[in-house]
Amino acid sequence: MTGEPRGGRIVVVGASLAGLRAAEALRAKGFAGELTIVGDEPRPPYDRPPLSKQVLLGRVRAQDVGLPRRRAVAARWRLGVSATGLDPSVKRVLLADGDRLRYDRLLIATGTRARPWPHPEQAALDGVLTLRTVDDAGRLADRLDAGPRRVLVIGAGFTGSEIASACRERGLDVTVVERGPAPLVGALGGKLGALAADAQRAHGVDLRCGVTVSELRGTDGRLTGAELSDGGRIDADVAVVALGAVRNTEWLTGSGLAAGSRGVACDAGCRAFDMYGIVTDDVFVAGDVARFPHPLFEYQMLSLEHWGNAVAQAEVAAHNMVSAGPDRRPHLTVPAFWSSQFGLNIKSVGVPTFSDQVMIAQGSPQEGRLVAVYGYRGRVTAAVSVNRAKWLEHYRHLIESGAPFPPGPGAADRPPAPVPVPSDVPDPAALSHGPTVALTGHLPDRRLAVVHRGGPADQHSHDQEQP
């Protein structure tokens, strides 16, 4: 580290949730030096979760989702200009306008962008949209206000499912096309994926699983519909491409950092690795663009697209940027996220994809209220609640303490003597939307199980090959 930890120059690349919270934490921890925040969008940091919920329902205007400031950051803001390169040897960030920013410490918080439709001429059709930015949300809300005949949603991850839910709440006809076997399956597994599929169909969604969109059709530059891989055709005047996210790392090409399509690799203290696996001491990473090891999940490298992770990791990065070695701390927060769609309030703690079994510990799919608990190699690794969130703190403690799976008594209405029974979870590579948690390195056997109330003679198993 160059100079006094609480002085010098710090550059934050990414005027994002993680970038803003890190800047606030830096000032709160006594950083008194020069602070510069770079963002490729022309507006200050804003909150993204409302874009697929309140904004699409017309309850909040897209331009009114700014993030509240916890404290003044006294920063020099460079908005509307993107970073195009990094030269760590001379500690310079290169900007698109030709400027070069000097730094003593750098925070990379560039996040992700929406994965575009892969065929540019089809993506350019009027009516083909994505949803990631304020401008995206404003355009989509305007289209929904105009009352399209049918909306086609391509991809049934959390974003795609929330878009479809908003459309149905508006009374619009919706078709959802998902390459995988069910909505949300890449994030939550087959059992809750089936519950999500039932909820979509019960709310009038034309849900097509196990197929893909092979072509978007248009006339005179306007979208008219889509051709499906099974030979089907959909007439639609709006199509929302919800194929997951692309991590914004291209500007780091040639920088010598361990950066690529999976993000920027860092240690548990948010310090970036170089391409040889050596940790740096002046470049830090936080938010959706970061890949970091977590001891609760066998030190696998996690990439999380979660609001809470961005905040917690930004605060750890800021702390370590202004702290001497012995005072630094790791980012060990248990991942958590939530989604509201089709009358389901879904909340999760842990990493459901890091599992080989799952059981319904409370409630049932038939009730539409449940808690599913996930385990890997006999240890609790995650819990997901559907319309039943009050017990998640209990399961968070089980995850943090490495409690055995299946979990012991403690839930209010846990069924007697539950018996886990394996079921399939697809390889994330087969999904169109991508998981919300990416595990890199060793992938566990992806057998999942559900509670079976019968005896051992009723059990069956299905082993799936290692992906």
Automatic annotation (TrEMBL):
The keyword Nucleus does not apply. Residues 9-314 form the FAD/NAD(P)-binding domain. The keyword tRNA-binding does not apply. Residues 404-425 have a biased composition (Pro residues). Its cofactor is FAD. Residues 403-439 are annotated as: Disordered. InterPro entries: FAD-oxidoreductase/Apoptosis, FAD/NAD-bd_sf, FAD/NAD-binding_dom, FAD/NAD-linked_Rdtase_dimer_sf, Reductase_C. Residues 337-407 form the Reductase C-terminal domain. Keywords: FAD, Flavoprotein, Oxidoreductase. Transmembrane segments: none annotated. Pfam families: Pyr_redox_2 (PF07992), Reductase_C (PF14759). PANTHER family: APOPTOSIS-INDUCING FACTOR 1, RIESKE DOMAIN-CONTAINING PROTEIN-RELATED. This is FAD-dependent oxidoreductase. It comes from Streptomyces brevispora.
